[in-house]
Amino acid sequence: MSLYPVILSGGSGSRLWPLSREHYPKPLLPLVSHQTLLQDTACRLDGIDDLGDAVYVCNEEHRYLLAEQVAQLGKRPATIILEPEGRNTAPALTLAALFLLRQDAEAMMVVMPADHVMTDPDRFVQAVQQGRANAQDGSLVTFGIVPDTAETGYGYIRRDAGDSDGAAFGVAQFVEKPDQATAEQYLATGDYFWNSGIFLMRADKWLQAMGQFRPDIVAACRAAMDAGRQETDFFRIDQASFSACPSDSIDYAVMEKTEDAVVIPISAGWSDVGAWSALWKVCPRDAAGNVIQGDVIAHDTHDAFLVAQHRCLATVGLDNIIVVETADAVLVASKDKAQDVKEIVKHLKEEQRAEHMVHREVFRPWGSYEGIDQGHRFQVKRLMVKPGAAISLQLHHHRAEHWIVVKGTALVTCGDQVFHLHENESTYIPIGEKHRLENPGKTPLEIIEIQSGSYLGEDDIVRFEDIYDRVQES
Question: Using 50, 70 and 90 to split pLDDT, how confident is the model at 152?
């Protein structure tokens, strides 16, 4: 029976702002190693026998970023299921199970969020191997993290007081995040584990359980899959059908209700790195207890998390703080208030500011662009177009553009003209003219784009042709 990783990449990671943004969230960031959290997750089960290609479930907005990161690992996904809108983890897993059962009637799934850390993945692999027999027999297996502190930021799983089968225990209860006194009681009993949100089960068994407890979700997901379509590595589910799907989590929908749940305890250096304080615990620290990334000078500073991405960051006489500097935002916070960073994101949303959504460098399927300067009726951007990539054939109603090539060679379409543009050459795109920029070369193309006009918003785009299927989005 083949084992398939099912990687759920739907979280936004708002408590890790300003590094994590809505359009470039936590799973896509290299926070602990040289690989991103998504890439670490994708490699976590490498070496297991009968391991099938992974199924990824993600938001449409992140599809090309996710696909590129998977390709960098030399891996090919079974598919990347695109959710037009988030409906929590139970529908996401149901979509994955429906897809896998079309390919393999005996598919077994290891369900993993894309934004967790495992500093000892070998122990996790061992636990998965131990749990395969339980899952084969029809159990819905979850993995409980053996707690080493009275943590109030996690939900807990209480094991059954009866005998285990050697690795797995029956589940007596799922409990919500406790207060400090209750967490200390949980730790003292030895019967409670942190709820990791990681599962092992047969795909058909999951659909059977969902059919028993949430048939409405199964019906909506099945309709969305039946009306969906495969596009290269992506499976685009039907938006209208999925919009009718209720939102629910794996725990609430099934695990808290079923009699088939078992828990396998593991100690694998797990963390959901849900806040800067949690990330500080799993990152390498210097002799003063500081996590330092970038150009940082820390004098008489202890137990801090210090990140500098674009300039020199200096601290003097500070303890237990978080300072994260990016191109367009700086966060300064007390480490024991790390959970409250989400309130800053909430404020930015209420003020309709862009800093919660995108970085100054914005990633697109064809490459990226970064704002350099802007003023009344103009703005300047730096564009990077990947080899072989192209922006859509498009026009703007309210702005003209000047393109200057600073590196590489561009293939430009402007109206009826198609021509090459080389380094130190430029061209002009009038308002209302159809145009396209392509990189025919083997190295990245870098362009300085100067926009001028009465309105310079990104929504002033009318697409006619697009190799990334974004015509319907314009």
Answer: confident
Three-state SS for 417-436 is EEEEECCCCEEEECCCCCEE
The amino acid sitting at 53 is: D
Tokens of 208: 């059977």
* Residue 164 pLDDT: 59
**Which one-letter DSSP state was computed for residue 454?**
S
Q: How far apart are CA 316 and CA 80, in angstroms?
A: 47
How would you write 153-208 as a 3-class SS string?
A: CCCEEEECCCCCCCCCEEEEEEECCCCHHHHHHHHHHCCEEEEEEEEEEEHHHHHH
Contact 263, 251 (CB under 8 A): no
DSSP conformation letters of 316-329: ES-BSEEEEE-SS-
Identity of the amino acid at 212: Q
**Token pair for residue 335?**
């480490």
The pLDDT value recorded for residue 79 is 97
Considering the chain, what percentage of its residues have pLDDT values greater than 70?
98
Asked if residue 472 has pLDDT above 80, the reply is no
CA 424 to chain centre: 38
Output the average pLDDT for the chain.
94
pLDDT tens-digit series, residues 32-72: 999 999 999 999 999 898 999 999 999 988 999 999 999 99
Q: pTM for this one?
A: 0.90
CA distance 350 to 362: 21
CA dist 265 and 191 (Å) reads 10
Q: Which domains does the chain have, with CATH numbers?
A: 3-271 (3.90.550.10), 284-350 (no CATH), 361-473 (2.60.120.10)
Q: Cα separation of 332 and 306, whole Å? A: 9
